[in-house]
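Q: I'm writing up a methods section and want to include an example of the input and output format. Could you take the sequence below and give the corresponding predicted structure tokens, formatted cleanly so I can copy it straight into the document?
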Amino acid sequence: MKPFFIDGSRSYGYSLLIEEIGREGFYYPLYRTSDTYAYWKNLLKALVSSRAVTLLDSDINPSEIAGVDIASLNERVEIGRCEIETTGQLIDAVKRSTAEISIFTSGTTGQPKKIVHTVASLTRTVRTGEKYENDVWGFAYNPTHMAGLQVFFQAFENACTLVNLFGKSRSEIYEIIKSRHITHLSATPTFYRLLLPVERTCPGVVRVTLGGERSDAHLYENIQKIFPNAKVNNIYASTEAGALFASKDDCFRIPDAIRDKIKVSDSELLIHESLLGTSESMSLDGDYYHSGDLIEWVDEAQGLFRFISRKNEMINVGGYKVNPEEVETALLSIAGVRQALVYGKSNSVLGNVICADIVPDDGYELDAVGIKQALQGILQDFKIPRRIKFVETLPLTRTGKLKRV
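A: Here is the clean output for your methods example:
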């Protein structure tokens, strides 16, 4: 039987998973572990028995989250043995589950919010069928967050193999993709930028998905070089709503099925409550949730739009609003710039000054003066970083995105 999960030299089969779920007879409602296989096994035990489960990052600090009884952390609850003998029975039991699954927002813009989902809301975009049965998924997300759960359910409901790539180095990722015959990848743009400069090609990968951050044409070009046989998709998902939109470039289209549940107000995307999980800390404006994502219409009549930035990440410079992602895109267009992180630093005169941390490509010697000169014809003067620092790596969040200062 094919493996369920591969992590380095360790391989866990579906037969082992079924045997342990059936035999152990307990689960942890509030579980914290760095063992990804144990985490998924616990999640599946909760779902099969329709028990509530709360998903926590392995390094979470209790002070970061509210509404969690930390005294019951990793406290086992008896659920009895489960009569499941085949992979198909396990998948069917999960699909029928009425369990509540609580996850937390990343907390990058404040206290993490607890959002309660169901299997139905988490698997809204999962596709199943014979043509998906031989997919091998590279797993490049934190498993406790929405994007990781989306990949997990897509693989699991087709009895596919998941191969861990999360937290691996660039050279390890290339080697694992080749040796484990990975066919599908879903990751943040930051993950794909870690694979640059292009070191080798991975012709066995047939589907590449980006999500969680804004991407750019330069990154798309390099992804196509690394994965020459892959179809590339962009996914929009949030902890509150799950996956909603997909595209083949940076332009998204609102599906007809939810067209009447999406609004735009002052360039901000609003999502109807019927598409959301539930949360006591999530406030609504009437029936709509303010996503915090700013968009621009490409073709409003057709429902085509492009993401601009997160509303709370705009930087005020002398009364002008600067989108850090726009500046990052401009920096990434400069030869020799592999990664860039743009942020504001407090300034008594301007309010903020624009700063940039840059990871150079191997073999390039960049300097701040040259970077600023290259930006002169691309950006308005107030958007050009005043302080530029060259670094070896950039800080990442728990979800694998760039961590803004």
